[in-house]
From TrEMBL:
Cofactor(s) needed for function: FAD
Natural source organism: Amycolatopsis acidiphila
Domain of life: Bacteria
Sequence ranges assigned to domain FAD-dependent oxidoreductase 2 FAD-binding in this UniProt record: 6-466
Protein name (record): FAD-binding dehydrogenase
Length: 484
């Protein structure tokens, strides 16, 4: 026996819920199918900090969508479309699809308003995107607004909003294939166990292939099977695989992904309690060395938001796929307690660099030499974490371009890190309405897509907070088209 719906959405993360709400708003009867059990609700979206990059005109503009802040000592510069687009183009080295990028940026603020009306709650992210300097909280890096309660809060809000608007959500519903007509049109989905569910339209929002080691090593390259998964184990590329089998066009950076410095002692899949607390994003205020005690990246090349998503891949290329972040006592107050003081954090401390290296099991002479050379190379004026302060090194390679301070104040503290993969960049090609395109550039009738499995937006790197916004903007569009 098979049931029949107007729209079936595959995947219950942020993009899937947005697509479902949008289809519902346009009159469709909507069923959302989620592979995971309820205890794993929310996909990768659950694991996020809930940070959402959006265009805005400053504090007065975002005031309408956020909870009232506890202080008025706030400096929040406007973040216009030109800057968001510029950031996207710069970090993707000019490769982001121009039309998808324009839509993402142009609809970001309106979509935040739409989410707020659906019942999602937002706040200013004082704890991760601002520092207090001269008595004022100054926001930096083009990112200020996040979901209350992070990804956990966002998914709780999505589940409540779905129930309020009669979006039917079914867990333990593993979609294994698309039902197609003779003309290749999509007419529903097949579930593990053989059940068939018919629908006028299907929206795929089932994430990338980051939790599939075979696909990782096939597309991203050798060694990627060894990366730790930061989020859900259920994003195994199913939607991409079934859409490609139905003739969809692969698009975007299939050899690229979002990956970060991640606690070297973390498990192979995400931790539902700690979620993003296993990230180690404080490296702009210290140095990163490999097992030989050598630096290999410019830790201060830019604000963390613009470098963190590509440095995981750099760490994976170092010996053993590991590295160590090293700080002195001066930097410790700048490290987010949620990350660097999280329960079970992998950490080594010593009053000497020699002792630190010994405890870490890395090259002692190498580390001491690196720090001595680094300290001698530091130049520039006043240290300021809220701007690119230009306090840099001279005469060493790689340079450190900002926030360079000598490591000279014990105790020295080190955090061993490895590569944590967040999500993959390659995926399906969609048109402006979220319809999936085939290899001839024509729409696959009845098939839409949103979220991580859409290709073409991100290449090599990523401006922090763009994934949830992209899933929301394109989820909303795909849901509207699927209902039409
Ligand atoms: C630790 C961490 C922190 C992050 N922090 C941020 C942040 O602060 N801001 C930001 O913008 N982005 C962040 N991201 C990235 C963000 O998670 C993604 O960009 C976004 O959540 C993707 O949403 P989605 O709905 O496409 O995918 P998901 O939220 O992963 O949802 C996909 C869903 O599809 C389901 N599914 C998979 N296969 C099937 C199938 N065959 N049948 C049925 N269901 C299926 C999965 O179980 C999953 O629930 C972070 C990611 C991680 C892991």
């Amino acid at each position: 026996m098979s049931e029949s719906w107007d729209v079936v959405v595959v995947g219950g993360g942020n993009a899937g819920f947005c697509a479902a709400q949008s289809a519902r708003e346009h009159g469709a009867r909507v069923l959302l199918l989620e592979k995971a059990p309820r205890e794993w609700a929310g996909g990768n979206s659950y694991f996020t900090a809930g940070a959402m990059r959006t265009v805005h005109n400053g504090l007065d503009d975002v005031a309408g969508i956020i909870e009232p802040p506890a202080t008025d000592r706030i400096d929040l510069d406007p973040y216009p479309e030109s800057e968001f687009l510029g950031d996207l183009r710069r970090v993707t080295e000019g490769r982001c699809d121009p039309r998808l990028a324009e839509i993402l940026v142009g609809e970001s603020r309106a979509t935040m308003g739409w989410l707020h009306e659906l019942g999602l709650r937002f706040e200013l992210m004082f704890h991760r995107q601002a520092y207090e300097v001269d008595g004022r909280f100054r926001f930096w890096g083009g990112l200020a607004v996040g979901a209350v309660g992070g990804g956990k809060g966002m998914i709780a809000d999505h589940l409540r909003a779905a129930a309020e608007r009669d979006v039917v959500v079914r867990f333990d519903a593993h979609v294994t294939g698309l039902l197609t007509g003779d003309a290749g049109d999509v007419r529903g989905v097949r579930l593990a166990g053989g059940e068939r569910i018919e629908a006028r339209s299907v929206v795929l929002a089932s994430g990338g292939f980051e939790a599939n080691p075979a696909m990782r090593s096939a597309y991203l390259g050798p060694g990627w099977d060894l990366a730790l998964v930061r989020g859900t184990p259920y994003n195994t590329g199913d939607g991409i695989t079934m859409a490609l089998a139905a003739g969809a066009q692969p698009f975007g950076n299939f050899s690229g992904c979002h990956s970060v410095a991640w606690d070297a002692g973390a498990g192979t899949i995400g931790d539902r309690d700690l979620t993003n607390q296993l990230t180690r994003g404080g490296y702009p205020f210290g140095i990163i060395v490999n097992a030989e005690g050598k630096r290999f990246v410019d830790e201060g090349a830019d604000f963390r938001n613009y470098t963190y998503a590509k440095y995981g891949a750099r760490i994976l290329r170092e010996p053993g796929g590991r590295a160590v972040q090293v700080f002195d006592a001066k930097a410790m107050d700048l490290l987010r307690p949620e990350e660097y003081q999280a329960p079970g954090v992998t950490k080594v401390e010593s009053d000497t660099l020699d002792g630190l290296a010994k405890e870490l099991g890395i090259d002692q002479g190498g580390l001491v030499r690196t720090v001595e050379e680094f300290n001698r190379a530091v130049t520039g004026e006043r240290f300021n974490p809220t701007v690119k302060d230009g306090k840099h090194t001279e005469g060493i390679s790689p340079a450190k371009s900002n926030w360079a301070q000598p490591l000279d104040t014990p105790p020295y503290v080190a955090f061993p890190v490895t590569c944590g993969i967040t999500f993959t960049f390659g995926g399906l090609r969609i048109d402006e309405g979220g319809a999936v395109l085939d290899t001839a550039g024509r729409t696959v009738p009845g098939l839409f897509a949103a979220g991580e499995l859409v290709g073409g937006l991100f290449f090599f790197n990523y401006p922090g907070g763009s994934g949830l916004t992209a899933g929301s903007v394109f989820g909303r569009r795909a849901g509207r088209s699927a209902a039409a």
